[in-house]
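Tip: read the tokens left to right.
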């Protein structure tokens, strides 16, 4: 009964995550969207703190209620969802696809038009949404095959699937699920002390993740992801060394207190490194790289790979820790090195654009030097669309909402290109990048 209940719960959680992250991204005010979607994933730690505190409180119960109470209390979040989901506004983009444009405009006016000047912004935003979604749906079959239809979409799938693996195979599950085993390996066997450390790590993670989520509007996405992967690699290398010293001393019966403290330090240091990219940015990035027509399918694909990776590590981690001890951490160091390379070559920059503008991103990462060269030669970089055309990108939303002429605004947005492939989406993936990816794979 317990296992079946966990299976039902596991089926419901991804459904809520896919719909919840998409809805937040589509409802939020453009300037606030990165923060809102980041806080969505950060709220995980609130649940983790509550769960860790409840388990700490029931740890002393000698009967089966020690595990039944935490299980029963999982009803509470679901009851909150069932109660308040009926008060949520619908996504204006979804309403536009159902020919309910007036309702969509009313929602935008209520949540995005907070002043007299906001009316112009809402008109520009609505026109942009309407035109872009219309072009997307005209070229979309509304099926899962759309995810593999073009080179750009296939590259989206590659990045999404890898990000799903990265969020689970970066060593976080080792700390989340097997903290007790890790601490036992360095000689800490008191269950009360382990529970206290577990609660403190959850609180520390919440602080780190919240701090990072406030910075997503100031720091570019690639910079954050590269900082995340590089710092994780360095942290894991140092942790492996301290773990080796601590476990060797514990096995010999002469505990090395300095190594034990260093191991604990790197376990705590792991949190800000991980949350820099793989927590705060996860759904922000997913919402940004996927166009509306495939957004839910793309996030579902991310969830699939994340869950499969979590399932794998759940069964492999205890075997690795038991059979090879600290040497098992070396495998994570190698994988983290691969993550650094993959992020550097394949992750695009999506910072500073609306969801509609991201549909018209250029094919390549354009360096400042290339930009200067482009200005001198007046050469336009090829733009990838669903139909591989070379359309003209509409002006930014901020520039278009300065006009008072709505008809002129709508006319300009009608010249918008068919949405497709951002920086990561073009067909020109060079041979050396592909060879490098296959080599590390």
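Filled-in amino acids:
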């Amino acid at each position: 009964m317990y296992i079946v209940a966990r299976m039902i719960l596991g089926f419901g959680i991804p459904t809520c995550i896919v719909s919840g992250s998409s809805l937040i991204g589509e409802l939020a005010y453009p300037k606030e969207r990165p923060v809102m979607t980041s806080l969505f994933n950060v709220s995980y730690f609130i649940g983790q703190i509550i769960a860790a505190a409840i388990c700490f409180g029931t740890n002393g119960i000698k009967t089966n209620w020690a595990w039944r109470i935490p299980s029963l209390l999982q009803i509470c979040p679901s009851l909150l969802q069932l109660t308040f989901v009926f008060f949520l506004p619908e996504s204006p983009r979804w309403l536009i696809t159902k020919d309910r444009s007036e309702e969509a405009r009313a929602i935008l006016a209520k949540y995005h038009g907070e002043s007299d000047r906001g009316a112009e912004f809402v008109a520009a935003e609505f026109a942009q949404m309407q035109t872009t979604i219309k072009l997307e749906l005209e070229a979309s079959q509304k099926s899962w095959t759309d995810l593999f239809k073009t080179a750009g979409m296939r590259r989206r799938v590659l990045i999404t699937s890898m990000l799903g693996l990265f969020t689970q195979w970066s060593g976080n599950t080792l700390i989340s699920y097997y903290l007790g085993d890790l601490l036992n390996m360095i000689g800490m066997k008191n269950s009360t002390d382990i529970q206290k450390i577990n609660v403190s790590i959850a609180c520390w993670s919440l602080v780190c993740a919240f701090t990072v989520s406030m910075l997503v509007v100031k720091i570019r996405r690639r910079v954050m992801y590269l900082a995340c992967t590089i710092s994780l690699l360095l942290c894991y290398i140092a942790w492996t060394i301290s773990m080796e010293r601590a476990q060797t001393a514990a096995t010999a019966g002469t505990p090395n207190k300095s190594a034990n403290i260093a191991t604990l330090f790197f376990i705590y240091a792991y949190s800000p490194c991980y949350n820099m990219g793989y927590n705060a940015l996860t759904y922000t990035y997913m919402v940004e790289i996927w166009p509306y027509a495939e957004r839910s399918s793309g996030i579902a694909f991310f969830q699939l790979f994340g869950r499969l990776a979590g399932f794998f590590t759940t069964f492999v981690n205890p075997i690795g820790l038991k059979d090879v001890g600290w040497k098992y951490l070396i495998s994570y160091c190698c994988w983290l090195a691969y993550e650094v390379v993959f992020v550097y070559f394949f992750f695009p920059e999506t910072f500073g654009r609306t969801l509609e503008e991201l549909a018209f991103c250029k094919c390549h990462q354009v360096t400042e030097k290339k930009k200067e060269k482009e200005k001198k030669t007046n050469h336009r970089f090829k733009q990838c669309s669903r139909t591989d055309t070379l359309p003209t990108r509409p002006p930014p939303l901020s520039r278009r909402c300065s006009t008072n002429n709505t008809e002129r605004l709508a006319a300009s947005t009608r010249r918008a290109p068919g949405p497709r492939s951002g920086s990561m989406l073009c067909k020109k993936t060079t041979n050396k990048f592909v060879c490098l990816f296959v080599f590390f794979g």
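The two ends are 39 Å apart (CA to CA). Residues 230 and 361 are 27 Å apart (CA to CA).
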